[in-house]
Structures are given as structure tokens and as C-alpha cells.
């Protein structure tokens, strides 16, 4: 995928020091911070609770397997996969994304829309579709029925499991299946409707005059059913009438526990597109840094880019679902790496569903070498590679460890100075190479954690320490 580098201004890097060592390019952290806490940090993020365009609506959500899960409900959401299984599924997702955007050229950035309201829905860590994901709880139908949904910026069609749906082909979920016959506002989309013809690659023909849909995911999972319309309630005071979604009657693959998926992609079927007339096409999210903390998704806000480090939003012309930005460089320990800008020419997909960031092999090799060299003076013993992660350490004998800072720079001057949760995962450097320098990079959710990531149709913004 060739992106127009001439449209991007490359700039230097900067760091926001967290500790005294940060000014020298290092941070010292307690190894206890790497452990999964058994105590719920039962607090809503301050930025999520602040007014946005005069409206604020916040819902508390929890990690499905973490200490904040509702009493007696965590086991119903299924057992978490092993870390190695998660990485295997993550690799399938990354390869799928790269296949979809391969060969695409950059289109002009989208137009910014004026926001009028704001609805905020917290997001929390969860597992689904075979990889690490985040979930939100909304309500569907009249009367409103709670639905816990996976959030995915790489998907457009939202869907829930609907009655009738025996198991199999439906999977076990925490909440009762959505029953369209009990919702007074439900209707199946007719085959002749424009919204049916606009499904394009998600179309699955017609049956009995009803529009069919099908969505296939990178790990081989699928959902099929009737394309439908109903009222989607984000919070008690924020509802979207006539929301289009898939009423799933047959699901196959690695789904587990959640009731469905909420698509935040860029095409017309997504929540962002359908809600644009209400919330102005602006949305943001903050992925929580730990399993025992809470993040959020905000539709319609923040209305201003003040405080955000912004970069132009680019589009893959043959697959406009994805949010794409241009990487400009990487620093380790405060020192920019010597990487030619052409290495990043294929752009980077900003994705909530990919776990660890993927970089072109040339860039990854430079990052790995610099990171290992910066760690060497401390003498931390190495640990075996874990799946796609090949730079791992054994910190079991240490109360604190010192890590080199890592900063990712983007076109237009934006930069992300990563927190420690964005540098390591399970003791390993949380980056991996793509299949070749010509493939797109992917900004994974490990690196995005604790940043508020804002999209307005023309730019992507990053604000640290937001949840």
C-alpha cells in the first residue's frame, strides 16, 4: 500500500518524563505493577466524567475475567485463553488486516463533522474472536435489553445473537438472547431497502423478503442472520432510533461469552457513521492500562483537539473500513532510531482488536536492537521467546526494573510516549514484525492503553494518561 508521503510532515520526538530517570530516557517501575491485581479499582476515569459538548453519559464496565466483573458473572463469560493462544490469534488478525489493505493507495482525508452531543460508554479489557478485545454494555430494543458487546474499530456491521438460535450454531453467552418478537421497535430490513443493497460484501441474499447479512473475521469466525433495525440505547438519555444491526441466528468460530459486536469502522454500517447526524462523526476511546481499571468510548466528544497530539487520517482506497495514519519514526531511551522514512510508506492501521504493534521488519529490527542494548547494562536474565514475541526477560528476582522509554512519532508532528504498560507484555517487548517492509504497520491496543485516541474524520489525536 503506497501512501502519499509528500502530504505528511515528518517531525522530531518528545518525551513527557514520569520519573526522574525519564529525562535521561529511562523509567524505573515496580515489578508488582506487572501482576494482575485481585482488587478492583472501582473508579470512573476523570476525563470520561467531564462534560463534553454539554452532555456526559458514563457507564461503568468491567474486564470479563478481572476483579471488577459483576459477582457470579465472570465465569459465564468463558475462560480466558492462554497468552500464547492469544498471540496466535493476534497473528491471524494482523495477517488478515494486512491482506485487506494490501495494495491500497491513500485517499484524501475525510471531512470533519460538527458535533452536537456527546455520549460516553466505558470500555474494558475482554477476550473474543480469539484475541484480546474490549467490551461495552449498551441496550437494544423496546423495552431496552442489555447487551455486552465487543468493540472493534476494524469492523463495520454491529450484531447480536437473536432468538431463535439454538446452541450450536449459537454459542453460550452471559445474557439472554435478544428476542426481536418482544421489541415493539424492531423490524427486519426489507430486501428492497437501500440499506440492504449498501451491505455490499456483507450481503447474504434475501429470504422471505428479509435482507440477509454475513460477516467473516480474520480468525475464521462468522456470523449470519437477518439485517435489522431497532432502537440502540447507549445510556439512559442517549438512544439511536432505527439503528441497523445484524440479528445473528448462526455464529461459528472463536466467539465466547459476549452478546455480539459493536462496529466502529468507517463505512456506513458502523455505529460511528449511523450516529454521525447526532454526534457529529467524532468519537474517542481510552483503553484501560490494566485489567482492574476502567476506560471509555465517547461518541461526539471531545469537541476540541486541545491537549491532543494529532496526525492526519488516511484512507486505504480498496478497504476504507480502517483508520490509517503515517508513522514517522521511533525513539528508544530518548534517541531516535536510524530508520529511513520509506520503511513506513505503507502506513499504519490504528486497531483496537490487534494486541501488539506490528512494524516493518527493518523498523522492528532497529527497535529490538536498541531496546536490547539499553537493557543490557542492567543484566536482567533473558526468558524464552513467547510466540511472536522474541525479546523477553525474567524479572522474578527483582523488586524494581529500569526500562528505556519508547516513543512513536507520526506524520504532522504527533507522538506517543508509551507508558510501561505499552512497552512490555508478560515480560516481553510488545512489538512484532510484519511479513515484509511493504506491508502496513498496525498500532495495537497494548501501545494505545491509557491514551485517549480521538477520531474526527480528518485527524487522529492522542492524549496520554486519560484513563
Question: What does this 3D model show about the protein?
Answer:
This protein has 467 residues and is mainly β. The protein folds into two domains: 5-37 and 304-463, Cathepsin D, subunit A, domain 1; 46-92 and 110-299, Cathepsin D, subunit A, domain 1. It has seven helices and 33 strands. It has helices spanning 46-49, 83-101, 194-197, 271-274, 276-279, 361-375, 445-448; strands at residues 26-30, 106-107, 119-121, 124-128, 131-140, 145-152, 159-161, 187-188, 203-207, 210-216, 222-235, 238-252, 260-263, 283-286, 296-299, 309-312, 315-316, 323-325, 327-332, 335-336, 348-350, 357-359, 382-383, 392-393, 400-404, 406-410, 415-417, 424-425, 428-429, 431-433, 441-443, 452-455, 459-463. The strands form nine sheets. A six-stranded antiparallel beta sheet has the order 3-15-14-32-33-16, with no helix packed on it. A six-stranded mixed beta barrel has the order 5-6-13-7-12-11. Strands 20-19-26-27 form a four-stranded antiparallel beta sheet, covered by helices on one side. A hairpin with a 2-residue loop joins strand 28 and strand 29. The protein is globular and about 70 Å long. The two termini are 34 Å apart.
Q: In terms of per-residue confidence, which ranges show pLDDT below 50 for 5 or more consecutive residues? A: 1-20, 54-59, 70-75, 104-116, 124-130
Regarding quaternary structure, how should these chains be classified?
Answer: single chain
Total number of helical segments?
Answer: 7
Output the radius of gyration: 21 Å
Percent range for β-strand residues = 25-35%
- The CATH architecture category of the largest domain equals Beta Barrel
Amino acid at each position: 500500500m503506497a501512501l502519499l508521503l509528500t502530504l505528511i510532515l515528518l517531525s522530531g520526538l518528545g518525551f513527557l518524563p514520569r520519573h526522574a530517570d525519564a529525562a535521561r530516557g529511562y523509567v524505573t517501575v515496580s515489578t508488582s505493577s506487572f501482576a494482575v491485581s485481585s482488587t478492583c479499582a472501582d473508579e470512573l476515569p476523570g476525563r470520561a466524567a467531564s462534560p463534553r459538548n454539554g452532555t456526559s453519559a458514563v457507564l461503568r464496565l468491567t474486564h470479563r475475567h478481572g476483579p471488577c466483573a459483576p459477582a457470579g458473572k465472570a465465569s459465564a463469560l468463558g475462560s480466558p485463553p492462554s497468552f500464547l493462544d492469544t498471540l496466535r490469534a493476534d497473528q491471524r488478525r494482523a495477517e488478515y488486516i494486512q491482506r485487506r489493505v494490501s495494495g491500497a493507495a491513500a485517499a484524501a482525508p475525510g471531512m470533519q463533522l460538527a458535533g452536537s452531543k456527546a455520549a460516553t460508554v466505558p470500555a474494558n479489557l475482554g477476550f473474543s474472536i480469539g484475541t484480546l478485545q474490549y467490551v461495552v454494555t449498551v441496550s437494544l430494543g423496546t423495552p431496552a435489553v442489555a447487551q455486552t458487546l465487543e468493540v472493534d474499530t476494524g469492523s463495520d456491521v454491529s450484531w447480536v445473537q437473536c432468538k431463535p438460535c439454538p446452541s450450536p450454531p449459537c454459542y453460550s453467552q452471559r445474557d439472554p438472547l435478544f428476542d426481536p418478537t418482544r421489541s415493539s421497535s424492531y423490524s427486519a430490513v426489507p430486501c428492497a431497502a437501500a440499506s440492504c443493497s449498501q451491505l455490499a460484501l456483507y450481503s447474504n441474499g434475501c429470504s422471505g423478503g428479509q435482507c440477509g447479512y454475513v460477516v467473516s473475521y480474520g480468525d475464521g469466525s462468522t456470523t449470519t442472520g437477518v439485517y435489522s433495525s431497532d432502537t440502540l440505547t447507549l445510556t439512559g438519555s442517549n438512544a439511536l432510533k432505527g439503528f441497523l444491526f445484524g440479528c445473528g441466528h448462526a455464529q461459528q468460530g472463536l466467539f465466547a461469552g459476549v452478546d455480539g459486536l459493536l462496529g466502529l469502522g468507517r463505512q456506513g454500517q458502523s455505529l460511528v457513521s449511523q450516529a454521525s447526524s447526532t454526534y457529529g462523526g467524532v468519537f474517542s476511546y481510552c483503553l484501560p492500562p490494566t485489567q482492574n481499571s476502567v476506560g471509555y468510548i465517547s461518541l461526539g466528544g471531545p469537541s476540541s483537539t486541545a491537549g491532543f497530539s494529532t496526525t492526519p487520517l488516511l484512507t486505504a482506497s480498496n478497504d476504507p473500513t480502517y483508520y490509517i495514519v503515517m508513522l514517522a519514526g521511533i525513539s528508544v531511551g530518548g534517541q531516535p532510531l536510524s530508520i529511513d522514512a520509506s520503511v513506513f510508506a505503507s502506513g499504519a492501521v490504528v486497531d483496537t482488536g490487534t494486541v501488539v504493534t506490528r512494524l516493518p521488519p527493518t523498523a522492528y529490527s532497529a527497535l529490538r536492537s536498541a531496546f536490547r542494548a539499553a537493557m543490557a547494562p542492567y543484566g536482567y536474565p533473558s526468558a524464552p521467546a513467547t510466540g511472536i514475541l522474541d525479546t523477553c526477560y525474567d524479572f522474578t528476582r527483582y523488586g524494581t526494573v529500569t526500562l528505556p522509554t519508547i516513543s512513536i512519532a507520526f506524520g504532522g508532528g504527533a507522538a506517543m510516549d508509551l507508558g510501561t504498560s505499552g512497552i512490555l507484555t508478560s515480560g516481553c517487548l510488545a512489538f512484532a514484525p510484519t511479513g515484509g517492509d511493504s506491508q502496513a504497520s498496525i498500532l495495537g491496543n497494548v501501545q494505545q492503553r491509557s491514551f485517549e485516541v480521538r477520531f474526527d474524520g480528518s485527524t487522529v489525536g492522542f492524549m496520554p494518561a486519560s484513563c
